[in-house]
UniProtKB/TrEMBL annotation:
Domain named GAF: residues: 19-163
Protein's UniProt name: GAF domain-containing protein
Highest taxon above the source species: Bacteria
Stretches that traverse the bilayer: none
InterPro entries reported for this sequence: GAF, GAF-like_dom_sf, PAS-like_dom_sf
Entries under Pfam families matching the protein: GAF
Amino acid sequence: MIEQARLSALHSLNILDSDPEPFFDALTRAARSAAEMPIALVSLVDEGRQWFKAQTGLEDVRETQRDISFCTWAVLSGDIFEVEDASSDPKFADNPSVLGAPYVRHYVGAPIQVAGGHRVGTLCLLSQTPGKLTPSQRAVLQCLAEAAAVGMEQRAQLLDRVSEATRLHGDLQKSQALLEQTNAVAKVGGWELNVDTNELEWTQQTRLIHGVTYASPSLEAALSFYPESAQGPIQSALASCAEHGTLIDLTVPSTKADGERIWVHVVGQRLQDDRGTRLIGAVQDVSLPSAPLKALRSRPLRALRRGRP
C-alpha cells in the first residue's frame, strides 16, 4: 500500500519522460560543485525503472532498471543514503554499475520528498573513487533535494492550471459553436458594443440578417442600415443603456446591404466586468415572409372578407 501511494504521488507530478528543464539541470550542477563529485542526477524511481529528469556528468543515459538502482535504497531509507565504497559493500559489489560503466564507488542520494511524505526519487551523486561527504556538504545536498521537491510540485500545479485553462477554452469554443448553430436555426443574431471604444462585434447570424459578408462594421456603419427616423431612437436607447442600465427593446425598420427592406427586433442590456462596460444583445428579423405578403397583395380584399379562396 505504501509503495502504491508513493507511485501514485510520482505519477501525479506528470514529470516522467518529460523534456530536460533548466531548473533541474541547475540543481545537478550545484550539487556536483558542492560535493566535488563528477556525476549528479535528479532520479525518479518508477515501478520498474529509475528515470533521470536531469543529469550532469553522465551523458546519453536517461534511465536504468530499478533492481540495480542505488536510488531505490535511498528512497527506502528516508534520509541521505551514502555508500562510501560500493565495491566493498555486499549489497552493491556485484552491481552492474559497479562492475562496469560508470564504475560507481562513492554514492550519495538525498530523497526528494513531496507532499504527503512520499519520496519519489533522489538528488544523487556518483564518483569512481571512494569518499565521504562532510556534514556541510550533506546539508547543502539536503537543501537542494528540498528545492527539487518544491520545483516538481510547482511544476505540476502549473501544468494542472494550463490543462484546466485549455479545457475551459475548449468548452467555451464548443459553447460558442453551439450558440451560433442555435442562433442560426432560430435566425437570431448577437451583437456586442464596447462602450469605452465604440467597437462593435456582430455574430455571423447578425451579418446574415443585414446581408453583410465582411467583418463586423463600425457603429457608424451599422447605424447606416437604419433610416434616419430609426437612428435617433437606437442611439438614445444605446446611451440610456450604457449610462443607466436601461434595457433595450426596439422594433425598427432596416435595410439590408442589397437594399431589401426588413423589420428587426433589437434587445440589449449592459454588462460591467473586468473587460469594462459593454452592451450585449440580440437582433432578429421579424419581417413577414415575402410569400404570404405576395399572396395577400394578389387576393381581392372583398374575397378575403368573404372568406373566399
